[in-house]
Every structure is written in structure tokens, then in C-alpha cells.
Specification:
By secondary structure, the protein is mainly α. It has one domain. The protein has seven helices and no strands. Helix 2 packs across helix 3. The longest helix has 22 residues. The radius of gyration is 23 Å and the shape is flat.
């Protein structure tokens, strides 16, 4: 093989591999991480993530818990909830999306933080929005549960130390 051809092929393959991560093979309607009972689009996935950020903003937390808490929430719903609860959650998600387009004509992620809080308070007071209330309350409960079970929260607020704790060799009694 000619040396020039070999170098040319190496350059072509390496440039193709460099561009590969930017490719979207699922399309705009593609599903994100697959869950057995939850079929979410990218838009719904990001909406749930934004809702979690407005429920529990983690600006002062040094550990990146944002992706972990979204995965925790969806895994918990998929594995631990009944099919009826999952259907109610998904219908609440659909109702919430429709409510946002009807009220503001823009996605939830593009709202100001004050508008996000106001929207959540209005939905909590609305007696006809039971599916949306279930959706928001489920997100709120599981987001707070994930944070309170995190290592950083346990060590910072409770002084928790992992077993077997500290070893003090020679201590005067």
C-alpha cells in the first residue's frame, strides 16, 4: 500500500470519528434513554429536567446531581410505580405541555424563574388539574428524595461518615 493512501485513509477515518458524536441518529422525535414503561421524547425529557431545576435549584451544590436526579426519577417511576400511576404521570406530562403552550406560547425552559414558580403555584391551586398536580407532586417528591439521599447532603447536614468510621489508634482514656 502506498504511504500517501494510508495517511489519507487514516485522516478520513479520524475526521469521521470526530464528527460522529455530533450526529443525531434518532431524529428530532427520537426517544431518549429507554425505559420499559416510559416512552419519552427528547422534548419531554428536557421538560422534566427543567421542572426539576425549578423545584430544587442546585446552584450552590458542588456535585453534579442534575443528570443523576433525572435518571433516578424516571427509573423510580418506571420500576416502582403501577401502570395506572405511570399512565396518570404521562397524561399529567401531556397536560402540562399543553398548558404551557396555551398559557405562554413558549416552552417551560424559556420562562423566567419567577414565571416558573408562579405557574407551579397556579397549577397547585387549580382543582381541575389533577393530572398535572400528580405530575408535579411526583416530580417534587422524587427530586427531594433523591437530594436527601445523596452523599453530599448526608455528609454536610448530618455529619454522616461511611462505615467503618474513623480509626483512633492510641487514645488516652
Amino acid at each position: 500500500m502506498n504511504r500517501r493512501q494510508a495517511i489519507r485513509q487514516i485522516i478520513i477515518v479520524s475526521s469521521g470519528l470526530a464528527v460522529l458524536p455530533a450526529c443525531d441518529f434518532q431524529g428530532s422525535n427520537g426517544l431518549v434513554k429507554t425505559y420499559e414503561h416510559l416512552a419519552l421524547s427528547k422534548k419531554q425529557y428536557t421538560l422534566i429536567g427543567e421542572l426539576q431545576k425549578s423545584i430544587l435549584p442546585l446552584k450552590e451544590v458542588s456535585v453534579d446531581l442534575a443528570s443523576q436526579r433525572l435518571d433516578y426519577l424516571l427509573t423510580r417511576i418506571n420500576d416502582c410505580y403501577s401502570m395506572e400511576d405511570i399512565q396518570q404521570y404521562l397524561s399529567g406530562l401531556g397536560d402540562f405541555e399543553q398548558y404551557m403552550t396555551k398559557q405562554f406560547d413558549k416552552p417551560y425552559a424559556k420562562l423566567e424563574p419567577a414565571q416558573k414558580t408562579e405557574t407551579l403555584e397556579l397549577i397547585a391551586k387549580d382543582k381541575q388539574a389533577s393530572n398535572m398536580q400528580t405530575f408535579i407532586n411526583t416530580n417534587k417528591a422524587l427530586t427531594v428524595e433523591h437530594f436527601t439521599r445523596s452523599e453530599q447532603y448526608q455528609t454536610d447536614h448530618f455529619g454522616f461518615e461511611f462505615a467503618p468510621n474513623r480509626y483512633s489508634g492510641c487514645v488516652a482514656i
